[in-house]
Amino acid sequence: MNVRRNAAALAAIGVLAAAAPAVAAGPSPSPKASVPAGLYGKSDPTYDGVWRQSLTLVAQRTLGYHPATAAVDWLTGQQCANGSFAAFRATPAASCDAKTMVDTNSTAAAIQALHATGGHDAAVTKAMDWLKSVQNKDGGWGYNPGSPSDTNSTSVVIGALAATGADPAGVRKDGKSPYDALATWSIPCDQDGGGALAYQPDKKGKLAANADATAAGVTAALGKGFVAQTGKAPAADACAKAGRPTPAQVADNGGAYLAAAVAKSGHLMSVMPGATDQPDYGNTADTVVALAADGRTAAAKKAYAFLEKSAGPWAAQTGPAAYAQLILAAHAVGAQPGDFGGTSLVTSLNALGPEPRMQAAEKQAKASDGTSHAGVWWSVGICLVAGIGIGFLLSTRKKQQS
User: What sections of the protein cross the membrane (predicted)?
Assistant: First the structure.
C-alpha cells in the first residue's frame, strides 16, 4: 500500500519517504511544511497527506473505532469539486484548477476511507465518477489522468470499486475492464519471474517481475481493497500456465511468486535506488495481506512473524501509514495488533492524531464474550491476561510519542 507504489515514485521524482504512495513530478517536500489540525502524523504531508489519512481511517474502522470528526473532516475537505483528490492541498478552501495535481491513488484511497466511515455517499459517488471518467482504453489507470496504466494504480482503484460494492469487471473502457489490464501484466509461468506482475511494460513491451506490483495485483485480482481476510487455499502451490489468465489465476500465480519470495527470510528486500541491503517492511506488510487473501496462510504468517519481530522501529519512524499497514496485515492473518512484539500498533497509531472513539455497546460486546464480531474486530491495545479459571481484560491504552 503505502510503499506499494515505489515504481511510480521512482518514475516520477526518485526516492521518497517510505510512507508515501507513488507521486507525480514536483518539487521536493519542504521540511517547513506545517501539518494541519486533524491530519495524522507529524511529517510533511505534501506527497502523502490524503494517502496516510485514508489508511489511518480504514485501519481504525477495521478495528471497530469511529474516527474523530476532525480527522474525517480534514479528508473530506481535500476533495476537489469534480470529485478527485490530490496528494495534499495546503489551502483546501481554494478551488482546484489545472495546476492541482489530482491523482487516482489518492482518490481511490479516500474512497475506501470515506466509505468505511459512512455518511459520505455523495463524496464517494463523485470520486468514483471521476475515476471512471479517467479510465484508460486498456481498462486500467495510471497515477495521473492520461498517464499509462500501471498495476499499482489499477489495483488501488479496483480496491475502491470493490470496497463500495461495485463489480470491477463491469467498469469498462472500450470493452476492457481493469481485470483485463491486470492479465496483460501477469508474467507467463515459463518466463523469468513467472507468476509475478510487472509494474507496467517497458518501452519494448517487456514485463519485469515486481514484488511491489505483485502484492497489489494479487489483492486486486481477488476483488479486495485495503482490508482483506484469509481466503480459500489455491488449487496449486506453483504457477499454473494459462494463455489468458483469469483474475483468479492472476492472483494464484502472483501468490505463488510471493510465497517463494518470502519462503527463506520471511520478507522482501528493498529495491529502492541507493537503499542499503535491508528488508522492505512496507511491501512485506502488503505481501502478508496478499498471501492471506490468496489462502497461502503459512507463508502469510511467516512474513507477519518477521514483521512482528523487526518492523516496530520502522513503523515508529515512518508514521501513521506504516502503523495502518501493519494493523491491516494483522487483520489479514487474524493476529492481535494490540500486542505486536510487545507494543500496541493501535495505541501508537491513535496517538498520532485526533483520538477516535469506540462505542460503549461495542466495548461491552467484546468484553462479554471475547470474540471478534464482523466490523468490530479490535484490540485497542488490550492484552488478555489469564487467571485461574478467570480471564479479564486489562486496558493498556497509553499515549505514545511518535
Answer: 376-394
